[in-house]
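HUMAN: Now follow token order:
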Amino acid sequence: MKLSAVMNPDVRPISPEQTLTEAALRMRQQGSGLLPVCNSRKIVGLLTDRDIVFQAIAERLDPQQTRVGEILGDAAPCYAFEDDELATAAQLMAEHHLHHLPVLDRDQNLVGMVSLDDIAREALDAPSGPHELPLSGLTVNHH
């Protein structure tokens, strides 16, 4: 199954130029602790509520003045393409310990997000039950 069939296309990214206060308000409105950060539709990072607390509030940065881009890490975010198989996204998420994964089109524009919940829901909705989800080769370490 392709990611485009499972992903959530209703994604509202934030700009690196917006403030942390704006980001926190967006997180609250969306009921999510994660926002994709984009210049136009190109993803430049992922911002979490944890980033705001540990990299801004704990450092006594003013969230009304501090821009999202100021606390983003340098590492490029992990992502998958909308025409990738669900198993590819599941493998990436397992390898990198991710709960959410940005989904891009082949022009590398953000088109959605996929979550562990999306993958689990698809597994439960599979016609013959969870064992029929095509996740061959997926290895997950249980702690």
The two ends are 28 Å apart (CA to CA). Confidence is low (pLDDT under 50) at residues 136-143.
